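Protein modeling request. Please complete all fields; requests missing the sequence field cannot be processed.
Requester role: graduate student
Desired output: 3D structure, token encoding
Chains: 1
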Amino acid sequence: MEKYSALRMPETIFYGRGSLRNVGKEAAQRGKKALIVSDSIISGLGFVDQCKELLDENKVEHTVYLGIESEPVDIYVEEAWNQCKDEGCDLIISIGGGSCLDTAKAVSVLMTNNGYIGDYMGGRKTAKVKGIPHIAIPTTAGTGSEATDVTVITNTKNDVKMMIKQPAFLPEVAIVDPYLTISSPPRVTAATGVDALSHAIEAYISKKAHPMTDMFALSAMELIIKNIRKAFQNGHDIEAREAMALGALQAGTAFSNASVCLVHGMSRPIGALFHVPHGVSNAMLLPAVLEYSKENCIERVADLGVIFSKRAEGLPLEERAVFAVSEVKKLCLDLEIPNLKEWGIDKDDFESAIDKMADDALDSGSPANNPKVPRKEEIEELYRVCYSYQFSDNQSLI
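Delivered output (398 residues):
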């Protein structure tokens, strides 16, 4: 019986300190006028101006969209798309966190395929034409969006985070410069870092994992686990920042090709309804969901335990897996990740939303990739467990 897998990545990846300088020449090879998609915070840090200067040096015209103020929503996509059309742009450059990159991905595809971005959710509509060239430049080590064919956009009419995955959404060029991540404050560093770790872990335990994604996922887990605390404690530790940037890139490559699982399926509805940033909501869920899933992927969770500490190699398989979950909890505790209650979500409001969140999680398709595929009732119970989950308590809660 034939069995094969695919691996998709950007055509070109620039990685390392100072790699931002490549944006001008790469843009000049791909278009004449660029729409730069970013936000006011990134612009205030001077990164947009640096990008504009490099474009000017290479005689590439540009216009800037800075309307992103939150997780990406369909309104931002519509605004940026209209500006891209009105200004006659034939190239997109995104610089910022995942919100900026995901918005730009959507605009790139709509420029050549048209329609409402939500039309592409669940494969209802396929982007048959490649989008206009997109150069993606992350300023956080987290989403890995620069290396994925996924965009997540919230439908503001029904409060659903639409996970859209098609090859056309893959950026043509990724520029991963760790210097751009130094300005990330500790809480953002923690949330985006655990987001990247979630990507790597879920890619590794996914039913769609294959040898190439395993290679990226394992490397990403090792880089992130060994460096996230350093980057959190000292944002100017450039070696830690560089390792985190590479880990996020590798994790993005892994999950884009192996898919995410239950953590992400449950995380998106929390973000859509309670406006919790994506990285934070993933971090809130990761330990409890990993604890729930481990019995069906015990060997792989045990591998994670050994990455946390080589001393775990001498433990029996089951104990290695338990140790892995314990270490993920400890990591979240050290990084000051709050639970949902501590974030400030009202318990009654959360309880009343659980039915919709469970439905939306299942509709996303991600839970079906989990090694232990949950029933709706199990997802509902996991939400309740995660509401007041204690990272300091290493006793199983499920």
